[in-house]
Amino acid sequence: EAGVTQFPSHSVIEKGQTVTLRCDPISGHDNLYWYRRVMGKEIKFLLHFVKESKQDESGMPNNRFLAERTGGTYSTLKVQPAELEDSGVYFCASSQLLAGVGNEQFFGPGTRLTVL
Amino acid sequence: AQTVTQSQPEMSVQEAETVTLSCTYDTSENNYYLFWYKQPPSRQMILVIRQEAYKQQNATENRFSVNFQKAAKSFSLKISDSQLGDTAMYFCAFFQGAQKLVFGQGTRLTINP
Predict the structure, then answer these.
(1) A37-56, pLDDT tens digit by residue?
(2) Which of B33, B98, B104 lies at the smallest CB-CB distance from A42?
(3) Comparing C-alpha atoms, which of A63, A44, A41 is closest to residue B1?
(4) Nearest chain B Cα to A36, which residue?
(5) Under an 8 A CB cutoff, do A56 and B99 touch?
(6) Which of these, A19, A107, A109, B97, has the minimum number of CB atoms within 10 Å of its CB?
(7) Which residues of B touch A44 (CB under 8 A)?
């Protein structure tokens, strides 16, 4: 079974440009999460989809970040315009939709974003 | 708000030794889950072990075990007979009904031959 995949693995852009990150969750996983790790700091939650709906987007830093999940399958995270502080590793994770259980979240390899 | 603290940024031990990674957390909830995730160099993060707060028995997965002290809000990971493949970043994480993981800062563990 394929795991969570993310594209691209690395992205280097200049301040003010736009970047779109993609995540393909494990097939059948209705929960999809985005996290981010800024250099040397903890991994922080950005948002959570259940199928195509945003369940919790309390971790989104500001309105330069836009996440979508078309048809409840893959998800994209767009940063427009990118700022220097957006640099970091963006992780996607997915899990099954099982109520009341601390479900294991399966993580993708991450996208390393560098904003110059 | 829940917080997770890992006080050891880096650790290094010799192969076959036992090592313990520390983690403390803060929450007012009674039912929750705690996890240790491992991210080897240039590889994906994977779940090492999970503990449910209402279970008093400490979780064990082969060479990995936890010391869960609920009253002290402590959740340490013990790796026995460490192997070179255990070299990785280790993240302690908290999960409660909000459906998101709250991570600690991570501990970089190096196993030396």
Answers:
(1) 998 788 999 999 999 999 99
(2) B104
(3) A44
(4) B103
(5) yes
(6) B97
(7) 103
